[in-house]
Every structure is written in C-alpha cells, then in structure tokens.
Specification:
The protein is of the alpha/beta class. The protein is built from nine helices and five strands. It has one domain. Helix 3 packs parallel to helix 4 and helix 8 crosses helix 9.
Length: about 230
C-alpha cells in the first residue's frame, strides 16, 4: 500500500502547482497591434510570426493583429501613427480590447529626415500606462532586417541592392511578395537579433535618420521570442 503523502510534502506540491500557474499567467501574451505601411513584405513576415505563435498555443489566437495601412500620396510617418491610434480607440470602443503594445513599422524610403524622426516622439507622447507605442523604423529598408539573419551590415547600401544580397543567401530569387519569407528566415532568428543589436550600438542618442544602416525591427521579435519555439 502506498504511503500517504506527508502534509509538508503536500504543501510543497501545492506551492509547486501554484508557481507553475503563476508562471503560465505571467507569460500570457498581451494584445499586440502591428501597423505597417508596407503592403506585402512586412505583413507577410509578421503574419508568419503570428502563425507560429498561434500554432504553439491556440489560446494566443487573436492576441496579435497585423494591420496594413495602404500608403497614399502625401502620407507621412505621423499619419501612420495616427492610423494606429485610431485602431486602438476602435478596438476599445467595439470590443473593450486593450492593446498593450502597438508597433509602428516603417522604412526611411523617401521620407524627409524630420518626418522620419518625428514618429518616434509621437509614439512617446501617445504611450500611457495601458498602451505602449513603439516606432519600429528601418533605415533605409525593412530588408536590412532580413539580411541581418545572415551577417552583420555596418556599411550602408542602397535599398534596391538588398534583394540582390538576399538572393545569394536564400539560394533563390528574393521576392518582396514572398509569403513564406518568415519561414525561410526563421532558423537564423537569434542571429538576426544579435546582429541588429550590434549594428545599433554606435547610435546611442542618435536620431533615426542618422542611423544608417539601422533597424528597430528586432525589438518586436525580442518581445515575442518567448512565445516562439525554442531553438532553430
């Protein structure tokens, strides 16, 4: 006959279970809104990330929203931030959904330096106790983040050349509308994060327009890394 569990041991088991439940609650992802002015490259990448998170745990479904704001003539980075702000207000009004993190994803492209930099300040102004806004810029192209999966990139190259460089590493023609780009790059995610942090080190207290090449995309992946599969 099995011996009854000692009272002291039962308490230990109870604490262990309680701690496990607490850890589970502590890593439950908040609601995230990713707003991008890119119509294919960025949405395809982040939807791939969202799919992986939801495959790991169905409870995370609907936690991450990827929204695309079609860029139109005269639109600037502040317009993109305001679009995100309106999405946050609409979600709260319609379903009481509170986005904890809002990620504004944009490239330097042809934006004037002042417009490119102002979005950072606007995100800081909008940030509150309930919602944090992040200016996730790339100077000069979002594809810099892709290239960092394979190497550091401390020397600036024109945005039109990133595709040629990526083709070398992907062993196939790089296409901006590649719906599987996240899956192709995923094995080197941790390398990309390290490389991105490394190239950003010299830019302390610099405006985004002065950080070239530079990108903040890694901040999203670092934040959501615990919800992705471990390893490659």
């Amino acid at each position: 006959m099995a011996k009854p569990v000692k009272k002291s041991d039962r308490n230990k088991e109870w604490r262990k279970d309680r701690n496990s439940r607490s850890r589970a609650r502590s890593i439950a992802p908040e609601y995230h809104l990713i707003v991008s002015e890119g119509t294919e490259t960025e949405p395809n990448y982040f939807k791939g990330m969202k799919d992986e998170i939801e495959r790991n745990n169905a409870a995370y479904a609907d936690k991450i929203t990827v929204n695309v704001e079609q860029r139109h003539k005269g639109m600037n980075t502040i317009d993109l931030v305001k679009h995100a702000e309106q999405k946050v207000k609409d979600a709260l009004r319609k379903s009481n959904k509170i986005y904890k993190h809002v990620w504004i994803v944009y490239d330097k492209d042809d934006f004037k330096d002042n417009d490119f930099d102002k979005a950072v300040k606007e995100c800081e102004n909008l940030t509150s106790e309930t919602t944090e806004y992040h200016a996730i810029w790339s100077n000069e192209s979002f594809e810099l983040w892709f290239l960092l999966h394979f190497r550091t990139q401390n020397v600036d190259i024109h945005r039109e050349n990133y595709g040629k460089e990526l083709t070398k590493y992907l062993k196939t023609d790089y296409k901006k509308n590649d719906k599987d780009i996240y899956v192709r790059l995923r094995p080197e995610l941790d390398t990309a994060i390290k490389n991105a942090e490394k190239i950003m080190e010299p830019y302390v207290n610099k405006q985004p327009s002065q950080c070239r090449p530079g990108t903040k995309v890694y901040e999203i992946l670092k934040k959501l890394r615990p919800y992705l599969k471990s390893g490659k």
